[in-house]
């Protein structure tokens, strides 16, 4: 196969994988928070529940920026939510060789009240450090940015993060609490994983209450 045909073949493979639902493009998510004074108790509990029991939890220190893109030529677009794209990179010098991450997150599917988790489309793409310049040239606007430090746990396919958010300029914490997220990436139709997440979330009570959160209700006007 020639190099000219390789991108075409890769795209064909991606489309075929999408048709048979093997691409993990759905994020199942539960969120909550815990006060700083209680976070060590939660970390101890997670260490006993998760797979990396015999080792310290993985730590991370990342920078994240959120960009928005709106079709200003379309009058109807003024009244619709813009496309949001998130760019993330590690602030750890040891990870300087790692690629930047571009993430698209769709609107949450909240219609099914019986579903125990929030579900939304999610695509992650590795990219070069010039991604922020590229998005700006495309007409995207920087909405906000922050740094986040925390701990990462894994339980099977589930990922649990306990993180604190800081202002990027002076590293001032935004609150006196930690954000706790339980998430899992799966193909479309894998709703059975949501029940596994609900069961795991029950084990963290009453330290932290993980639940579906409609971010549209808390977003500023």
TrEMBL record:
Family named by the database record: Belongs to the Mediator complex subunit 18 family.
Name of the protein described by the UniProt record: Mediator of RNA polymerase II transcription subunit 18
GO biological process, alphabetically ordered: regulation of transcription by RNA polymerase II; termination of RNA polymerase II transcription
Keywords: Activator, Nucleus, Transcription, Transcription regulation
Molecular function GO labels: transcription coregulator activity
Assembly behavior: Component of the Mediator complex.
Source organism, top-level taxon: Eukaryota
Record localization: Nucleus
Keyword Oxidoreductase recorded: no
Species of the source: Chironomus riparius
Principal cellular location given in the protein's record: nucleus
């Amino acid at each position: 196969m020639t190099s000219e045909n390789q991108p075409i073949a890769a795209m064909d493979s991606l489309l075929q994988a999408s048709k048979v639902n093997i691409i993990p493009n759905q994020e199942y998510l539960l969120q909550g928070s815990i006060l700083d004074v209680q976070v060590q108790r939660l970390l101890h509990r997670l260490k006993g529940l998760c797979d990396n029991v015999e080792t310290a939890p993985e730590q991370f220190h990342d920078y994240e920026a959120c960009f928005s893109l709106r079709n200003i030529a379309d009058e109807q677009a003024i009244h619709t939510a813009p496309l949001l794209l998130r760019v993330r990179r590690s602030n750890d010098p040891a990870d300087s060789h790692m690629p930047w991450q571009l993430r698209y997150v769709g609107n949450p599917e909240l219609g099914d009240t019986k579903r125990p988790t929030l579900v939304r489309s999610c695509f992650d793409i590795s990219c070069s450090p010039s991604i922020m310049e590229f998005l700006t040239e495309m007409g995207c606007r920087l909405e906000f940015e922050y740094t986040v430090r925390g701990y990462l746990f894994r339980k099977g396919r589930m990922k649990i993060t306990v993180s604190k958010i800081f202002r990027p300029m002076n590293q001032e914490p935004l609150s006196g609490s930690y954000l706790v997220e339980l998430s899992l990436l799966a193909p479309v139709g894998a709703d059975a994983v949501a029940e596994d997440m609900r069961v795991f979330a029950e084990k963290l009570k009453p330290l932290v209450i993980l639940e579906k959160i409609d971010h549209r209700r808390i977003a500023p006007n």
